[in-house]
Write a structure and sequence with these properties.
This protein has helices spanning about 10-20, 20-30, 30-45, 60-85, 100-120, 170-175, 225-230, 240-245, 275-290, 290-295, and strands spanning about 50-55, 55-60, 95-100, 125-130, 145, 155-170, 190-195, 215-220, 235-240, 250, 260-270. With about 300 residues, it is an alpha/beta fold.
């Protein structure tokens, strides 16, 4: 085995995380032929095949998986050294990516993290608010908000807050169809719900107990789409209190029916000590605590 260029590991990590040369090249701000050449150079130096090259993308081989673990550890150590040498008292700078469910990301974090970004001109916050999970080991995010506490991997998690969901309808809908007084009144009503096979966690299955009342469903794959459909008077939906209360045209119906879930804030064990990550993490905890009443 010959010596290899340490910088090739940066290209290896980008391809391993992206799964495609073109995506990795865009993230690295490099040409895809350069990325391919650096991967080939690393494989030649290590005398190991690191990727299976297929039309749909690059997948790690067993040897590639072993290298990924080592390369991520080296990356984390390099970041930690840069953080310590740079000093913790310096102004916040660099990039911090926060992955969050679309409801929390859109209706709470977007404004709160925007205020933090405004105060620190050298800090770039990337808020990825999508109905999905995020892999911290693959560096899809530096901080993730989840609806279940993770139990695997080198992750550090902390409960962020409980939150409540209830049935809502718009005033225009109530004017047309009347306000349900008991669960049986939901019979024949159109319920705005999720797309069952696209939800990313069992914790998000809210409607299982109401199916007997609502065979008519309008299914939307995101929290944002569900809330907008209810606002438009399409039907009755289960919405997050912290999101729905921002819209005075929405009213709680059947208030005895409610659902309580929890958000968890998660970081990778090797990233949590980075100054910029630690500060954004602490900021999210502080802002949620300050607005606890929104969630419950």
């Amino acid at each position: 085995m010959s010596a290899f260029d340490w910088d090739d590991l940066r290209f290896f990590l980008a391809v391993a995380r992206a799964g495609r040369l073109t995506v990795a090249a865009r993230r690295l701000e490099a040409d895809h032929t350069t990325v391919s050449r650096r991967i080939s150079s690393l494989e030649k130096a290590l005398q190991a095949k690191l990727f299976e090259r297929k039309p749909q993308g690059y997948t790690l081989t067993e040897q590639g998986e072993r290298l990924l673990t080592k390369a991520e550890s080296m990356e984390s150590q390099a970041l930690a050294v840069a953080n310590e040498v740079g000093g913790a008292d310096l102004a916040l700078s660099g990039i911090v990516r926060v992955g969050a469910p679309d409801g929390l990301g859109t209706y709470f974090l977007a404004a709160e993290l925007g205020a933090l970004a405004e105060r620190h001109p050298d800090l770039t916050i990337q808020l990825v608010a999508l109905p999905r999970t995020f892999s911290l080991s693959k560096r899809e995010a530096d901080i993730a908000i989840t609806v279940e506490q993770p139990t695997e991997g080198r992750l550090v998690s902390r409960k962020l807050t409980d939150y409540r969901l209830r049935l809502y309808a718009s005033r225009s809908y109530i004017d047309r169809h009347g306000k349900p007084a008991e669960p049986e009144d939901l019979l024949g009503r159109l319920l705005v719900t999720y797309v069952a096979d696209l939800i990313f966690s069992p914790a998000l299955e809210y409607f299982s107990g109401l199916e007997k009342y609502g065979p008519r469903r309008y299914e939307c794959a995101s929290v944002v789409a569900q809330l907008e459909a209810v606002r438009a008077g399409v039907g009755i939906g289960i919405l997050h209190d912290y999101a729905a209360r921002q819209y005075p045209e929405l009213e709680v119906v059947l208030p005895d029916i409610s659902f309580t879930r929890a958000y968890w804030i998660v970081t990778h064990a090797e990233m949590r000590s980075l100054h910029r990550v630690a500060e954004v993490h602490a900021f999210i905890l502080d802002r949620v605590k300050a607005h606890r009443g929104l969630f419950m």
